[in-house]
Amino acid sequence: MADSGSSSDGPDIPDMSEMRRSSRDPEELRGRLREWLAVTLGSEAKPEVLTLSGTSATGMSSETILFDARWAEDGTVSDHALVARLAPDPTDVPVFPSYDLGLQFQVIRLAGERTKIPVPRTYWLEQDPTAIGTPFFVMEQIGGEVPPDVMPYTFGDNWLFDAPPVDQRRLQDATVAAIAELHTVPASDPAAAFLAFDQPGDTALARHLAHTRAWYEWVVADGPRSPLLDQAFARLESTLPTATDDPVVCWGDSRIGNAMYRSFEPVAILDWEMAAVGPRELDVGWLIYSHMVFEHLANTFELPGMPHFLRADDVCATYESITGHRLADLDWYLAYSAVQFGIVFLRTGQRAVHFGQQEMPADIDDLMHHKAQLAELVN
Length: 379
Description:
By secondary structure, this protein is of the alpha+beta class.
C-alpha cells in the first residue's frame, strides 16, 4: 500500500489512521468499569480490569472498548476477554441522534436465538449512564480478523487484499450466506416488533426512508444543508419502489468491516445500531455499495483496488441461489446506500472539524469522500 503523504505517482493519500472518535480518558474508564463490575458481580468477586484498549481499525459511530477482566465465582478465579459497546458522548459529535443500546443488545440476542449466524454471547446491558458516564453493554470478545476501514482494505497491505482470489470469494459467499440466514426472520415475528420504525409511511421501506430523512435533518440542523443530499432525497422519494415483498429483519450496516472472520468465514456478526425491518435489498445493496465506496476511494488515489470483489452480479446471484428470492430495484437501493454513506461522511467530517483534525470546506459536500460517485448514482 502506498504511504500516506506526498507521492510522485499520484494524488496524496490522507492519513486516516488516527481518526478520533472520543474524548474519554482510558484510565478513568478502566477504574469505573472495575467499580461497576464489583457492583454487578458482588464485592466477593473481587473483579479486576487487567487491560483496556480501544480499536480504530473499523467503525465510525459507537465506541468499542476491548478489555480483559478477572473475577472470582464460586471460589474459582477466571479471566474473561470482553468487549464494551459504549454510546458516544453527545459532545463528541456522534453519528446518530440517539444510540439505543438496548435495541442493539436485544437484536444480537434475537439473531442468536432465531438464526444460525454467529453472534457474540451477550453478558450485561447497563442503561444507567452514571456507572461509567454513558450507557453500554458487554459481550464476549471473539478472536478473528476484520477487513480494515482505516485504511480501507481496498488500499492494499492487509490480510484480505493479499489473500488469494479463491479465499476472497469464500469470504464474500459466506457473508452473503449469513445475510440470507438473518433474512429468514420475518418482520411479522413478534420478537422483531421492536425493530419497526414509527415514522409515517405505507410500507416498511417508506418508513425506513423517512427515518433516514429525519437523521439527515438532524445532522444539518445546526449547519449548512448539503445540496447534493437534498437532490438525492428528492430523487429517492419520487422513485420509491412500491412492489416490495414481505419485510424481514435486516442487519442494516451489512459491511464486511462489521464482521470478524477466521479462515475467511464469519465468526461474529457485529455492529447492529442500524438494524431494522425492511426489504432484503436493504442489506444486499448496502453490502455491495460499501465495497463500491471503498473501491471508489482506491481509484481516486490511483491504487489497484479490488474490482473483482463483491461485484453486484456475483452477490445477487449467490443470494438468489440461497434464498430463491429475486432481488429487485437494486439501482435504487445502491443510490439509497450512497445517501446513507453521505450522511455518515457529513457527520464524521463535522466530528473531524470539532476535534481540529481538518478545516470545514467552503462546500459542505466536499466532506463526502464519495461525492462524485453519489452524484452519478442519483442523477
